[in-house]
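pls design
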């Protein structure tokens, strides 16, 4: 992976969130390897997540345990989709 200036950040991150937010859709950030070990890019991602949290009307789950607890609390409302017969 080529080395880029920190100002390039993760391409399209803010635009992707803004589009999904405008459509009322789910957005999950994918943290690519270029963030690992890059303090400046990590700080930029922290700022991005802070901006997302400040938009309101969104729930950020930092850990899988929080997602599981949320799902268990509303278990009767969960939608279950089948994926076809097991092979």
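designed seq:
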């Amino acid at each position: 992976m080529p080395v880029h200036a920190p100002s390039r950040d993760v391409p399209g991150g803010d635009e992707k969130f803004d589009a999904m937010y405008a459509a009322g859709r789910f957005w999950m950030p994918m943290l690519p390897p270029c963030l690992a070990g890059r303090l400046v890019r990590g700080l930029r991602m922290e700022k991005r997540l802070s901006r997302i949290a400040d938009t309101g009307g969104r729930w950020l789950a930092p850990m899988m345990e929080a997602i599981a607890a949320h799902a268990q609390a509303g278990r009767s409302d969960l939608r279950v989709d089948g994926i076809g017969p097991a092979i």
